[in-house]
Predict the 3D structure of the following.
Amino acid sequence: MSLTRIAPTPITHIGWGAISQLTKELRQFDTKRILVVADPVLSQLGILDQITELLTAEYKFDIYTDIIPEPLLETGQRLVNFARKGKYSMIIGIGGGSALDLAKLAAVFLANEGDVGDYLNLTGSKTLKAKGVPKILIPTTSGTGAEVTNISVLALKHTKDVISHDFLIADVAIVDPQLTISVPSKITAATGADALTHAIEAYISVNANQYSDGLALQAITLISGSLKDAVQNGNNKQARTDMAFGSYLAGLAFFNAGVGAIHALAYPIGGQFHVPHGDSNAVLIPYVMNYIKKSCQIKMGNIFKAMGGDTNGMRDDEASMRCISSLVDLLKKIGIPATLDGFNIPLSALQQLTCDAVKQTRLLARCPQHLTEEDISNIYQSAFSGELLS
Ligand SMILES: NC(=O)c1ccc[n+]([C@@H]2O[C@H](COP(=O)([O-])OP(=O)(O)OC[C@H]3O[C@@H](n4cnc5c(N)ncnc54)[C@H](O)[C@@H]3O)[C@@H](O)[C@H]2O)c1
Ligand SMILES: [Fe+2]
């Protein structure tokens, strides 16, 4: 029997109105001066005011909003340079995965020397030595699960890379679906598809275990049952709440079991064509799952069941095909383009995408089927042509 390590989980408040718990949590720490790392859109939406109203009476704080979606390595370095000039004893990150990943960097780099790039997974040479100051992460999209994971993702010229260390885990996560009501439908679709990808990839990962399986299957049920409704009516409180729980559980699932080939092939698409992370995963889901289906047929039947499908009397190969058609159907309903062409990715780009995806060995190693360079090229080809070849 192999041993399973359960990753640490931040203290979490989750549910409608959970943001009210922020000040109570801040009092648990020796909080003197706070840096709030916030997505700039939140100030226009009045969401940032909700946070600062909670802080004003008790704390000194600065707000940093020089953030772009899918932040670059330079975006992260700029924030770290800024944070190092202040005497901050607490970081609050609020926004989508982009803001949360940056907030994590601000917290750890207050206690670690050197540049952010020195610590990257693919090209860095240093390992974080200290945890830095405490951090409270407040997601405003139902997507990445960054509020529970130990990574920060940064965009590079051709691809994306991560810094990965348990020091990057939040001390507290506050997951309030109320804060996601304003997310436009296209972003709801992309971020929700990212969460679904986390759950699916964690479930079929070679590192999956009883703990991550439970989290992943429940996340698949919640997300597949609510994503269309959240996209079609952003004010749907139940759908937003189910998505918040679903993305949180999917984050925990993939933190424990890892994500795999879909993310490996999506990273270069994000890096080279600036396709949002969720969209670049979403478009690849059917093609990767179809290509690797023989390596995880029974699990794909279980995914189909978690999505509400009935596998009674069905052979495993049939159930896996039904799983793929349900996923295609859901992605269509939420408006995800069916092919790479839908994101203006030309055929001529596939060779470079393949070269870059091959380098994502950390992710590819978790895929239940070993994928060679030729396999990866085949998957990109089918995602370009729209044919579900195997
Ligand atoms: N750390 C992790 O574990 C992890 C996991 C997966 C992805 N990521 C990374 O996270 C980033 C993507 O994060 P994301 O998908 O959450 O998107 P995002 O943070 O880039 O936000 C997407 C868009 O939504 C807007 N937005 C955010 N909250 C909003 C709200 N409440 N109302 C209206 N608009 C809002 C933002 O301004 C932005 O334009 C990528 O860099 C990706 O690589 C990190
Ligand atoms: Fe992701």
Observations:
- The two ends are 34 Å apart (CA to CA).
- The chain has a mean pLDDT of 96.
